[in-house]
Task: structure prediction
Amino acid sequence: MSMLELIIYGAVFGSVLALLASGYSLVYGVGGIINLAHGAFYMLTAYIIFWVIEINIFTYPISIIISLIIITIIGAITYLILIEPLEKYGEVSILIITFALAYFIERAVFLYESSKVGELEAISLPSFIKGGFWLTDFYLYYQDIIIIIAAIIILTFLIIFIRKTKLGKSIRAVSQDREAAQLMGVNVKIILMITVAFSAFLAGIAATLYVPKTNIMPHVGWDYLLFAMSVVILGGMGSLTGSLIGSYLISFSRFFVLLYIDFPYQTAFSGLIHLIIILLILIIRPRGLLGKKEKR
Result:
């Protein structure tokens, strides 16, 4: 792998991680919610798109829009029916119920797909624009360019939305002091529902952009959950900016290994290197790169 390939692949995967982790970080930062179904939302979005395409009624762009609406609604329902009623019982209850939801989604998709073909097969999605062009000795796919540009636009919008809009300011108010925000007339329940729904939407966007480059199976959601958690821990729990930095740091570190490690060991070492980076940073800064000390 050349240095140019490392930069491109690192930017592409980092952009996907940034979308995935920003939603995860937002939910934790606003509501203190650790949602173990986040990776399942990523996986489920890809399968919903695949199923809508199979109906052969809607075009690919319409299938994507329908799927993103569905996953956003699922995120909202998850908060209202599963998370909100259990918040008074503490974080462990939320961990258990979201883990159960993730497992249920995985098994449901597995059973449905297995029943169709007899044996489960990996799926992929069509690229938005097929083909690419040669960049010196490296073939750059248009899909890679779309991923990077889309991530920049969406994440820029997210930052502006959180900082400048009335709803965004309400979200920040809840994240800083839930009780005070409630006394000032902010509907905390609605804000948290919107936050979880938007987090699911971002996971869906990440899947929509990246699955055309990869295959996906029902168990893959756990892998992306671990990626999102790693990024958020590295960047600092609840820090959106930290998650963005952590996403690209982890991505580039994984691909950097490919320059120096022989092929049979690349997968193992690329996974190991980002864990080493997390451990080193947490030793130096236990709260992560931009994490703040919790108020008691």
Observations:
- The first strand starts at residue 132 and ends at 135.
- The two ends are 48 Å apart (CA to CA).
- Residues 3-118+135-218 form one domain.
- The chain has eleven helices and two strands.
